[in-house]
Design brief:
With 402 residues, the protein is mainly α. The protein has one domain: Cytochrome C Oxidase, Chain A (Up-down Bundle), CATH 1.20.210.10. It has 13 helices and no strands. Helix 7 runs antiparallel to helix 8. The longest helix has 34 residues. The protein is globular and about 55 Å long. Pfam families: NnrS (PF05940). Keywords: Membrane, Transmembrane, Transmembrane helix. This is Nitrite reductase.
Length: 402
């Protein structure tokens, strides 16, 4: 069994209900259902079968809730779970304080759903305060760390928060930048956050797999490859925001694609047997989908097919964003409940459904096919919930606290 060293620093004299014993538990219990509700509603709206009359700007609602509604929950669950693991002396946020954070997330979702009826400044405060408070809870150990090993994650989360503030400033017309373009800008930093998390997940899970197979190799996710990929994505995001139709975006998008694709070089350690792992195949698929997204966007700029860009972006949203969330939820549900990390058929099926749904969304224009793709995509998160909710509602199998 994998054991997490940080559980020795669990808060003393406290016995919270199991769903509040660690941040990932309560968020991963509820988040899959919210994801399913969000995407299925949007699928019916886009396909013309449903009209949400209480929302004027339904497209902005869909994009914001997909990125920041889902993304903020993922950030809270991940960073509040990871900090005590990154920094062994840190105590996890649990019990009532964790419940308050979760309630903040719920209030943010309700307020944005009814943004036409609630004062915009209240909506902005409820949504932005969640990430701001989470950053406040965790920032000290990141900057006190002499090695600064994980500071890039915090910097990326702070950037995502600042872009969220920009979005609301734009939405209220306090700054003259299109709010839709700001949401597209934020997508790039969610991709960067995924790469930062992916590097750490790769290091832990692949080396664990090598150890189980008695392979005397060490997997190293080379930092310089990830840094190059992140640098090119930042350039692409910046040019896209200020020069959205500049021809240079063709070559910048291609650079992003190949920089991300180069991450696959880390996996070639002369041991073909690791490619038989469902987890490795899923992680590789995530890299391929993200790379394909930027390549397709570059191709659209090259051919001046600007109307196709919104389709190709779904490689990054439906594909990379969705698959990253799904895989992190699965991995955390094993490792942080004291279980051995073994990606089973049911978990791999969910990953395949996300990939298949992405292909349907990108390459088929039919509204009915789009609705089918949303149902297929949502099915992956229902599989997760049905398969792993019991893990989240039971104590760790190794009897450690949390």
């Amino acid at each position: 069994m994998q054991k997490s060293e940080h559980y020795g620093n669990y808060p003393k004299n406290i016995n919270p209900p199991i769903y509040l014993a660690y941040a990932f538990r309560i968020f991963f219990l509820i988040l899959p259902y919210y994801i399913v509700l969000n995407i299925i509603l949007w699928g019916f709206v886009y396909s013309g079968y449903l009209n949400l009359n209480f929302m004027d700007d339904i497209l902005t609602w869909h994009i914001y809730e997909f990125l920041y509604g889902v993304g903020s929950a993922g950030i809270c669950a991940f960073v509040l779970t990871a900090v005590p693991e990154f920094f062994k002396k840190e105590l996890p946020v649990v019990d009532k304080k964790l419940l308050y954070i979760f309630i903040m997330w719920i209030l943010g979702r309700v307020s944005f759903w009814f943004i036409d009826y609630i004062h915009i400044y209240i909506v902005a405060f409820l949504n932005c305060f969640l990430l701001l408070y989470t950053i406040y809870l965790v920032y000290k150990p990141f900057f006190k760390d002499d090695n600064q090993k994980h500071t890039s994650i915090l910097i990326c989360i702070i950037t995502i928060f600042l872009i969220q503030v920009l979005f609301f400033l734009s939405y209220t017309s306090l700054i003259n930048i299109n709010s839709f373009e700001i949401l597209k800008f934020s997508l790039s930093f969610f991709m960067i956050l995924i790469l930062l998390v992916l590097r750490r997940v790769n290091m832990e899970t692949v080396n664990d797999l090598l150890e189980k197979k008695d392979i005397n190799k060490v997997f190293l996710a080379k930092s310089f490859r990830y840094n190059i990929a992140i640098f090119t994505i930042i350039i692409f995001a910046t040019v896209s925001l200020f020069l959205p139709n500049n021809y240079a975006l063709t070559w910048i998008a291609f650079a992003c694609s190949f920089a991300i694709l180069s991450l696959l070089n880390d996996y070639f350690i002369q041991e073909p047997s690791i490619f038989k792992s469902y987890l490795i195949l899923s992680l590789i698929s995530l890299i391929l989908i993200m790379s394909l997204g930027y390549f397709s966007i570059g191709y659209a700029f090259l051919m001046q097919e600007f109307f196709e860009i919104s389709n190709y972006i779904h490689f990054l949203t439906t594909g990379a964003f969705g698959l990253a969330f799904y895989l992190v939820m699965v991995v955390v549900s094993y490792v942080h409940t004291g279980r051995e990390l073994v990606i089973e058929n049911k978990a791999f099926l969910g990953a395949l459904l996300i990939i298949f749904a992405t292909i349907l969304r990108v390459f088929f224009e039919s509204q009915n096919i789009y609705l089918i793709s949303t149902i297929v995509w949502a099915s992956a998160f229902l599989i997760y919930s049905f398969s792993y909710s019991s893990y989240l509602l039971k104590k760790r199998v190794d009897n450690l606290p949390g």
